[in-house]
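[recover] target loaded
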């Protein structure tokens, strides 16, 4: 029987490559955590079912969230919501949309009415899992002025 012997540097190289592979794999798994879908897409359909009925026929709806628009988690919540509510277009409040309704899409339990008031909105309906439908609060008018609803 033949015995195979390799120089020590070959064993060292194999151990080094194995260690590097392990470090790379752990780093990729940690990075993948950032892209994990915290609210699976199929859950969005049931979360937004009541809203979809209420806003049927609306071309645009404002969008409000407790997530920072600069962070990737905002997009992970915004785009599936946009997809489920299509063809209605969601316009972030930062863009100052003129709409009949505003969708509040929250990740944490909060006082949704006070959040709405901070943005000049009143609650129309609350749905499960942090979904709230708002409408702009009508501003008081001077005598002779009319309130024109949003188109």
């Amino acid at each position: 029987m033949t015995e195979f012997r390799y120089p020590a540097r070959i064993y060292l190289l194999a151990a080094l490559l194995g260690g590097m592979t392990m470090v790379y794999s752990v780093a990729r798994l940690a990075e993948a955590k950032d892209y994990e879908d915290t609210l699976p897409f199929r859950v969005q359909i049931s979360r937004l079912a009541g809203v979809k009925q209420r806003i049927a026929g609306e071309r645009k709806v404002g969008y409000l969230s407790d997530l920072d628009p600069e962070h990737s988690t905002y997009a992970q919540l915004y785009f599936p919501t946009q997809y489920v509510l299509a063809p209605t277009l969601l316009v972030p409040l930062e863009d100052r949309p003129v709409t009949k309704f505003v969708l509040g899409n929250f990740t944490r339990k909060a006082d949704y009415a006070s959040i709405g008031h901070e943005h000049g909105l009143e609650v129309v309906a609350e749905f499960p899992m942090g979904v709230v439908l708002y409408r702009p609060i009508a501003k008081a008018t001077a005598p002779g002025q009319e309130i024109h609803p949003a188109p």
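[recover] notes: The longest strand covers residues 121-127.
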